[in-house]
What does this fold into?
Amino acid sequence: MFTEKEEKQWLRHLIPLPQEISIRDAVRLHPREVGIRVRAQPGGPVQQGAAELEELFAAKTGAVPAGRGFEIVLGIAAAQGEVDTRRLQELPNKEQAYLIHPRGRNRLVLTGLSEKGVYYAARTLYQLLEPALSPEQVSIPLAEVVDWPDMEERGLWNFPDPKTWIPALAALKLNYGKMASTEVKRIERGQQNRAFIDRELYQEARQRAFNYLPYILHLNFLHEYGLFRAYPELAGKGEGALAGRYFAHKQGDQHRVPCAANPLLAQILAEWMADIATQGADEVSCWLSERPAQCGCASCTAAGQFVLEARAFVAAWQAVRRHYSDFRIRLFLSTTTSERYYKILAELPAQVKIERACATELERVLHLPRDLLANPLLDHYSSQGRWIASYDVPLGAPHPGFCRAIAQAPVQGRLWHAGLGCQSHGDLRVQYPRPGRVVLEPARPQRGGIRHSLGDPPGLWRSRGSGGMGPAHGAGGIRRVRF
Ligand SMILES: [Zn+2]
It folds into this structure.
């Protein structure tokens, strides 16, 4: 028989812990007795989950799991007639829910309503088997599991090395990551506009039930692709259209926003979206301008820059949906401006999702045991069922060592930061919520510009600031970082 203590020890290997799990018994077998069977089409998450289990099995036991003494069977509910799956229909986020169910003492059934669910079942079993496999003996828990995620989407906005991180995130049942980059072809007047995504990694991620989501860059960056040279009429009018220079991007025309009232903008966006759709993606994240700015023409002034940018994306999406009816968009609201977001939210079609990031210090409310991140406008819409994602919890908060591993320059001293982000260009951004100081030693004195990045005195980043440490922030010019 199986004791509660044994069960508890086994459960300690699970991250995240399933919503409902009990292990009342286990079987001990020789590795050659165990077989893994798949009831699914090739190429999807079910087969991926089975392949990951087979790899683990082979690595730990040296045997191929093709035995007949004990079967682990994976397949969606429709293919798994032997188990009652009605419970799954009632669960939140049911397309990601799954069951693990023993049939007697010689079979374990892993099933879900969709392939995503079955993949998660495989990952739970993977974690349970990992400590229990050896060349001599295999222990298989006869686990009863019913599991589902509380949140539909879980993941990271910026993260390093997607090729290794996506499998690692998916193994923890995280299912979202912002694509590292979308390549936009230089804009030429009268020519088709092209945007290229990382198709290979997108498909690989999808097999792991992971949405590696492409995006269309902040509209105030489009001059970098020749937008205003090709179409001068799209340049936002007047001084107010300048969104300002970033310390990290010292050239260019100060990030002029486009005149979003001109229907030509929506047409260009539609061409990019359609191109992304033809590459197999069914969704794209659409980034509004990142900082406050306003085209000075009469139409833009009346409606508001950000309202018109949102409308341009929606118009582009509606055009693309004539050919790709399942194609979806989500709108990325910049956190450095809240200009007329109330208007955007009021008029946005219900299917369009909303996302935002990096508002940690703006909207943090002290609360025990964990601070709240509160925004009355977004919280209101969220309570009405609007799909809103926020990427405000810094990845590095519990893991300063991570910064040390990624920083381009040697790091000395104790890291007092609360978070980091901006991995999209191999970059690292660190936030400092507590008193402390950071001294950057530039490789060459003329590269000292980076030290002004926070508006602090040269050479000093102080509490409640943030600063970049990667190539996009000029970290190639830093010799050493001292905390
Ligand atoms: Zn305008």
